[in-house]
Amino acid sequence: MPFQIMRFRELMKKLMDVDCLEESLSQIVRVMEAELSFQSLGIFFHNENKKSFRLKISRNLSHAYTKRTEYDFDDNLVLLLRNGDVIQSSDPKDLPYEKSYVHLIAAPLLFHNELLGFIFIDNAERRFSDEEMALLDTFATVCSLVGHIYKQAHQIQNLSIFDAVTGLFTYRNFYQRAVIAFQQANRYNHPLSIVVLKLGKYKELYRKLGAVEASKIISGTATALMDNLRVMEVIGLIYPDTVAILLPESPTEDIDFVLKRLQNTILEVSSHLADSMIAWGVASMTTDYKDCDDMIRHAEEAAFEAIRLDGSMRLKHASPDLD
After folding, report:
1. Does residue 286 carry a pLDDT above 90?
2. Of 67, 68, 151, 166, which has the maximum CB count within 10 A?
3. How much is the pTM?
């Protein structure tokens, strides 16, 4: 079925209302699922803290594959993609993937000759048609444009130490401190937890109340956190609706109590906030993590899972079950 221009316009309109890279990619993948027949799909993006590419979003790939799969800058596949080559394979022995396939495509995501990432997409029954290949090229172009926009926004944000609205550390500065804390906790076997707080339905509040009032809610939440945590505990803004908290020297068994107290304080910020809008994800050193990135990612995944839970305290501890 031809990819109609109206559907493309609808997709671009949706992307304009999204302020998170993962959500933008999810919107693109939904349209790809409607327009292309494939077995599985993975979109890799440059990990800005390391010289590698990791999965940002996937379909029909396991958590274990998502966690362990990473391509270094000097990998042969990456070097070919950097030249703009679209790589095709019909033999899993030549280009290994999680599943067996009849046709696998690795398409580069390029912007001004810079490799931002790449798409893996496969079919278990047949080869992709020329029309499907052309459509995949269109989707790759959209992903490249979205990735470049978010990269620029991230670079601008990283120019400052503190976020202008909340007063919290920007993600770059939070991450730098998290890496040091992770290394020290790992070396000296000290307790460490990373907590991710996500405010659900924040975009609805933004549209309903307007930018000024919505900003007051997020800044009030930030103030409540800073006023009720120790000086040694670091707080950073990951996204407009997502906060990361570094809790060094905090026993894991005390975390739930601390977060319950923080949630009660946050609810006092605004009458527009409710228990159902607050979700917590916790990653602690009691679980083995490959590095700080891995620990933060698990905390984010746990917070995302917590949003779907019932009850007044929506909290999930990261565990191997998430892999």
Report:
1. no
2. 166
3. 0.56
